[in-house]
Write a structure and sequence with these properties.
GO molecular function: protein dimerization activity
Strand order of the largest sheet: 7-6-5-8-9
Pfam family, one: DUF4371
Structural class: alpha+beta
Oligomer: single chain
Number of helices: 37
Number of domains: 5
Protein name: HAT C-terminal dimerisation domain-containing protein
Organism: Mytilus galloprovincialis
Number of strands: 11
Largest sheet: 5 strands, mixed
Distance between the termini: 102 Å
Amino acid sequence: MSHNSKYYTKKLKAADGSKCRKLEAFGFKKSFLLPSDETSEIPAVPSPPSVSEFQPCKDDNEPIASVTDHVTNEIQIQSEAVSSESETCNDPDPCVTDNESQSSSSSCQVSDARKFSSLKYENKYPWLYHSAQGYLCKYCELFGGTCVNAREFVNIAVGLGTHPTRKLEKHQSSEKHIFSVERYAQFSAKVNVLDEIKKHSESTKEANRSVLKKLFRCLYFMIRQKWAVTENFESFVRFIAELGVEDLQRHISNSEFTKVTYMSSKIVTQMTTLLSDLIESSLLNSLRTEKFALLADESTDNANRMQLSVMARWNMGGNVNDHYMGLIHLDRARAEDICKSLQSFFVGKNIPIENMRFMAFDGCNTMSGEEKGLQRRMRHLSPLSFYINCRNHKLALCLKHLAKDIPLLAELDKTLLCLWKMFEYSPLKAGVFRVFQETYGLKPMVLIKASMTRWLSHLHACLRVIERYETIVDTLDSLYNDLKEPEIFGVRHILTRKDVVAMMLLLCDVLKPVNILNLCLQSENVNFTNLDQNVQKTIDALHEIKDKYQNNNYQDTEFAKIDTLMNIITERTALGRRVRGAVENLVPQQFLLNTGIPFIFKLTNEIQDAFHSTPLLKAFGALDPRNLPEANDLQNYGNEEYQRLADFYGQPKEDIYNGHTTVVRSDIDIPAVAFNELKVFKPQLLMMRMRGIDSISKVLQAFEADDVLRTCFPRVFKLLCYALLIPCSTAAVERSFSLMNDICTNDRNRLTQKNLDAIMRIAKEGKDRLSDTELEQLVDMEYYEKQLLLCNIDPVSLESLDPSQETKGALLEIGNRTKTIGDELDNICPEDEMVPS
């Protein structure tokens, strides 16, 4: 017998049962037993006794049925053994004697009929299986990778031979086999993320959700403060945790072992995107169903990228405000390229561009061109839209045009700028100026930069120079004596000219009412319908100043300081120059007649021309309750304006540009019905004014609060919304550029376009703090789950996860971003029909 005998099956002999229990122990009669002395003849095996004949032993505890089965099996085994021995010894050897033939059956010569059992090895090694050529390894064959060389058990079948265990153990302990087993385990492991998440306790999930909410709050606070979040977020969170926030302390301590901090730059960027998407989704859901006004302008950020800032103005719950929509990176600033970028922007955000009713740009040819400008191309996409030239830009151009006609004004502007640069970029000169102010017992102040496009700054710059005029002149004298720089001498020479000083005082008086109008145009809640009234107030104030100058009654103006400043100039002029008459003798009254009064007259005409409105825009003023006459004159009031509004918005519009035709339906069904509805609404408007509702915005809020008004006057309600949509200026866009420069600084000029847009949206449109509902939506958002659920921290309890409708809307909005826009752009403006300018 070999050492592998345990894997072989051998014949069962009679001697093998010598140690087994006898049949007598089970109650069989002795007659059923095989006689021990008879070897020549084997009797037939009797059938098992019946149950009635079976008498179990008293000491046996087994049940009768089980004993019967056991006896039956024993008889069958004995029968097979006897028949096998009979066949083996049936033909005895003639050399064997009778005595030898009468010996026990164990001395009979039998053939070796042992058979190899492969099931033993296959059970022990589950990776082993038999093929037609031999044995192979199922794991190495399927998961062993690309096998170029011949390998046993992989692409070469193996025969087990006489020592199979050695071969099998050697293969099982090989590195390639272990690698294949690991890959098989990964493949066969069906891990259900949802089931794994459910294993966590509810308390752990709530704690993790609380941590995520606090992380969102920290990030939101940093963005609102315009801090650099990517490199400072982790330090800020650790600082907040040290103040006693237990959730963050526990999270930071656990992160040292789990290596999951949720504070990496990648996670911070994803969280920033989620915050931006949450804010944007609420804005877009409101905008898609409303008519709106478009505001846009172009500028360059500190990363030297050409950016187009897009703002929209629409009615949101009775409040009409400007909202930031996004930044568009421009490759070229041509009207055609800007128009295509805006189309892609609106289509990508699923905003119907045909809902645009007004658009406001600056006055450059690219934006305001009548033939090929941006406003002409946008009016082709939405024929019911109306172009508004920014009134702030027009007001700045009024003074810029006057600077071309009045050289003294242009010279003053350059002098103010040179004086500011001299002290701004030289710490030495700024220090001398500070010392002279302290010597005079004054609080040290710095000069203000005067910008040609921001005349509000000119007023403050001139007032600061007049307030510190004596110290400025003394500082320039001291600096010139020490440094002998010609620039200092030139600035000092111009600044001590009496006509320049007189022009500075005149400009202060004139810019005060002009800047009031400028600030009114820059306010967020400005109403275009009362713009004419504000312009008229400014013109009246300028006429009042002109009358004071003509009557020599300017004691309460800035020009009254002319005598004091003239004395300062005279005292600081060398005696030789005064004797030679090198210093001009300026007569204030003569200066006002020759320069001041003509300057005011020209400025008044410029403002009137710049703020001239079209008849359609003026017609909206008839809806303002402040313009209503008394009840006796109410019958004929505004009929012409109402008819103009009904005709424009009550008829379909058709626009043809470069051979392409755009047709849109009217906003009001029947012009005659709209006109009659407006006439009927006049008494109602008068009663509103008597109740204290004295502006269009308040009238609109009354409509929003009263369903009866909206039902009775639906066309009036629509026109009231249009009246508030009219933008007076693009000041909101300019403020977005200031925000862009505060975020994308010289130190942070590597912000990507997507991150810059997201941070600007949060900083511009975000509330002061996130509500609990918004935090829950952020944690429940599917995108956040996919990115973070595989980490050790479980942010979301999916057992009770049922996102709200707002969250579903936000997720749907994010999904809509990925839609292709090529086909829709072709439908809006086919390429073969839009010929580039």
